[in-house]
Amino acid sequence: MKIHFLGVAAAALLASSALSFTAQAAAPESTDPIRIVTNNWTSQVVLANVVGQLLQKMGYNVEYKSSDTQLQFTALAAGDMDFQVEVWEGSMAESFDKSLAAGAVDYGAHNAVTREDWWYPKYMNEMCPGLPDWKALDACAAKLATAETGGKGRFVGPPADWGKHYSERIQALGMNFQEVPVGQAATLWAELQAAYDRKEPVVIFNWTPNFIEAKFDGEFVEFPKYEPACLSDPKWGQNPDAVYDCGAPASGYLKKAGSKTLGEKWPAAAAFLKKVDFSNPQIATAAAMVDVDGMTPEEAATKWIADNEATWKTWMN
Ligand code: TMO
Questions:
Q1: Residue ranges covered by each domain of the chain
Q2: I want to staple 195 with a disulfide (CB 3.0 to 4.6 A). Which of 18, 187, 200, 235 is the partner?
Q3: Dist. CA 210 → ligand 1 center (Å)
Q4: What's the Rg (C-alpha) of the chain?
Q5: Which three-class secondary structure string do you get for 136-162?
């Protein structure tokens, strides 16, 4: 139970004049919990806990709320959740843009550059000459065929809520492939490990920054280069009748998103969250602490904070 040092009248005044408070107001401007979104991949959960634990150091209450990567944007726009630390261009740009039009706030970009797309272990370069070009992969489909996919190559795809459109891409590009989506990220890594141990061909959904690059040698498949029109204009690209006939952005952004309430109710916290800025190696390391070293996301966040004081201190000024 928090002890209120303000009288009831003062508290009411504070609530009614919250809009006039500036970033100089003493934290916490409100003891209500700041609701931080968590998703279903490791770095996001660790980073969410890093910002959550830092906000707690600043005196705020926080609450973690798990959400679907697309529905979270509806929740942010509606003010049902307050902050998302990882908005990936390749999988979320469309939902994010809609949420901004509906009232959510862009909290700025991280230094990190991101990519999310089809990915294969490097030893496949010999099995499928011409890789990483997608046409070389397509010509190699028979080597990736399984009982489940018949004569077609198997692409081990992401969970449905990551907002990719790979079945549509396969169709738009006329590829001899079939997507078999996983239910969770751990299945992607299990499929990769099993194939990697036997040097068998496998193509999975992967992204960077991730812990994978420290453990496995591999490459992204190069699809026709992304342009925004690819997603909206059927005439764009090699298939004049279809959208999604391109790859994901090869140098995508990683942004942060907040609710409108966040800046109004907790301006000092909002100023801090706008400065939060992770790099590629910091994010890959955060994921590895859990996926390689076996820590919980909470433990990994605490360790990250202990190891990176010089970084987060600059976010608090
Ligand atoms: C949304 N993700 C980073 C897992 O591609």
A1: 30-112+253-316, 115-231
A2: 200
A3: 9
A4: 22
A5: HHHHCHHHHECCCCCCCEEEEECCHHH
